Amino acid sequence: MFILDASNIKEARITIFLISINTLLYLLFSFGFDEVFYLLVQINSKIINDLEIWRLFTSMFLHGDALHLFSNMVSLLIFGAYVELSYSKYQYIIIYFVSGLVGSFFSMLLLPFYTISLGASGAIFGLIGAAFSILIVQRDTPLIFIGLIYIFYFVFSSFTPGVNYFAHIFGLVAGLIIGYLFKRNKKSVVRNQY
After folding, report:
1. 129 Cβ contact list (under 8 Å, min separation 6)
2. Domains parsed from the chain with CATH numbers
């Protein structure tokens, strides 16, 4: 079982870095720079028509308001620290960014053509999926049940106006699959050594 404390947070350097970048960008764009901001957010029509593919990535570092930033950064701190300390640094980076990109990609495909999206929640839901995959690999049945309730709550709360539920759902699925594959492969390597 993992308990988040100050020493865990200090060790979760990539998570702290991601929180810092998200917060600094939010503060920067609070002072203006609207043209740059709209060059970085996910605008589906711009990606499809003008092939501005970078928007799928850059939009993961932008937030619409202080509450959006705060809720995402608290979730990133909790799940990011857990996943970062449970996987290798490279695996953590892969889980985070692939989940975010998968969420952005399916948002582009499934949301209306002129939709604008932004936020780190697709990547964060990927961390939630990776955290849950640890419970599956460990076959911790009581915690799996609690984790399922938690995931259903998070997914259900995504279906509110203005929330990109496709980024949440597909980010979660990507993180669950990648996290499971990383943990399962590690477990089979350990078994083969004996």
Report:
1. 99, 151, 171, 172, 173, 174, 175, 176, 177, 178, 179
2. 6-192 (1.20.1540.10)
